[in-house]
Amino acid sequence: MAKFGVLETDPSMAAKATEELKKELQRLVSRIVDEDESCADTTDKALKILFALRDFKFKGSLDFGVEMENPALPQEFRCPISKQLMRDPVVVATGQTYDRPFIQKWLKDGHRTCPRTQQVLSHTILTPNNLVREMISEWCKEHGIELPKPVEDVDEEVITDADRGHLNSLLERMSSSASDQKEAARELRLLTKRMPSFRALFGECTDAVPQLLSPLSPDAVDVDPELQEDLITTVLNLSIHDNNKKLVAEDPMAIPVLIESLKSGTIETRTNAAAALFTLSALDSNKLIIGKSGALKPLLDLLEEGHPLAMKDVASAIFNLCIVLENKGRAVHDGAVTVILKKIMDGILVDELLAILAMLSSHQRAVEEMGELGAVPCLLRIIRESKCERNKENCIAILHTVCFNDRAKLRAIREEENDYGTISRLAQTGTSRAKRKANSILERLNRVALITHTA
Questions:
Q1: What's the rounded Cα separation, in Å, for the pair 225 and 222?
Q2: pTM given for the model
Q3: 127-128 and 97-99 beta bridge pairing
Q4: How far apart are CA 368 and CA 275, in angstroms?
Q5: Are 384 and 422 in contact (CB under 8 A)?
Q6: SS3 label, residue 99
Q7: I want to staple 173 with a disulfide (CB 3.0 to 4.6 A). Which of 16, 163, 180, 427 is the partner?
Q8: Could you tell me which residues are beta bridge partners of residue 78?
Q9: pLDDT, mean of residues 281-297
């Protein structure tokens, strides 16, 4: 198959390339039809060719990256999602860089993780990576390639009056019979999952959220579990749309309904309620609303239950909420240290929960509880055995706070140092922050030893 690392500007060459693409597409489609099990790689290649042909039809030239197998193209210039040369590189919360239109589509499709690392994104803000953009520009100039222009962020799905009418019709059925409510709720769940434009529609009507949640009002009796699940999942889908975050969180009914759904319903209902709170808490103003509404205690209860389906969404929600100082105090008061430390000791969701514990270590009562609950030996063991630098960094940061708060805990740290050299090793090989904390602890150990020896 032909490579298209540069634009084809000669009309005859472009026509020839187009015919070659069409033949290759026919071959791939035949292969897909004939195979017993469709090969993902074959399907991906066919889709890329279709996109290339579409671009050629509208732009009159073959654009970058049909296969992008040109070995001269540096790997760091390819988008991890499309494998094509990035036009508009942006950085997500995890520090990974993607081409803007592809990561936007990923987020609009409802994903809340980084495609490359699978980490839950703490926010969905996309920051331009100007350095990579400049490097791509220089590389293109050196190789005589026209610099690709950024793709405009245009939602291909246009909102029509028919869409508005359909949404109003579905919302009106929320005050109808039980069967009508279930049918409408199921359709709303599917529409808000598949169509970003439908999520945006909710922002046009101030009554849309109250109408949606009316079957779950405090006066409702014996709510059908399937209806509850569909409505809570719809709220989750809506909250993915940035313009809806404030709208949903500030509705007097929405957060209380989500909190109540953390306590009852199917496990999917409870999980999606936690996921919705996580997504809504991307805004600092929403963090305060959610925290004041009493969400942390039921989130911690669900975390303590330990259902595998719910754990990550619950941990992500707690982490986001505790970024705000007021919510740290609420979490500690609601027993966060006990629940989180027990899970860590059991080896459950260690990465995520250590990050929360490190955040809580700025709260005095949390530090005291960590000391009382035996956190020090657990954290030292993780530093000694873990291969994750981030976990080691979080552990030493917590230990630094604990031992400076309670001098008695230095004894366990000294024994660990004497037996394994754990702190010294981290001071030499850890991250820059881990090294600072480890060296500070070593200095304190030396001072205490010197004072004891002098005395």
A1: 9
A2: 0.67
A3: unpaired
A4: 30
A5: yes
A6: strand
A7: 180
A8: 85
A9: 96
